[in-house]
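REQUEST
  id: r-88c1
  op: predict_structure
  target: Integration host factor subunit beta
  payload:
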Amino acid sequence: MTRSDLVAELAERFGQLTHRDTEFAVKTILDAMSDALARGHRIEIRGFGSFSINRRPPRMGRNPRSGEPVLIPEKLVPHFKPGKALREAVDANVPVAPEPAELAAG
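RESPONSE
  id: r-88c1
  status: 200
  body:
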C-alpha cells in the first residue's frame, strides 16, 4: 500500500472528509512520526507495532571495484517491530504453500 492508496482508502471510509483533508491528515501524521524518530524518540502504536532507532556501529567494508578497505561510518537507522496483534493477523492470513512432494505428484 502506498501513501496515495492510504489516502484514497481513508477518504472512501470517511465520506465527510475531502480527499485534500485526508491527504493533509496522512501527511501530518507521517511528518510527526518522522520528526519524533529524528529526535531519537520511540513511537508505539498499540496493536500495530513500534518504531525506534537502531545504531549501526562503524565497520570496515570493501570497495567492490578496487577491493581496498573502506571505513563505513556509524549510522542510525529506523527499525519497526510489529506488535502481537499485527503478527497474529498476518499469520492468520498466510496461505499454506503446498509441500514439494505434492507439487511433484500433481
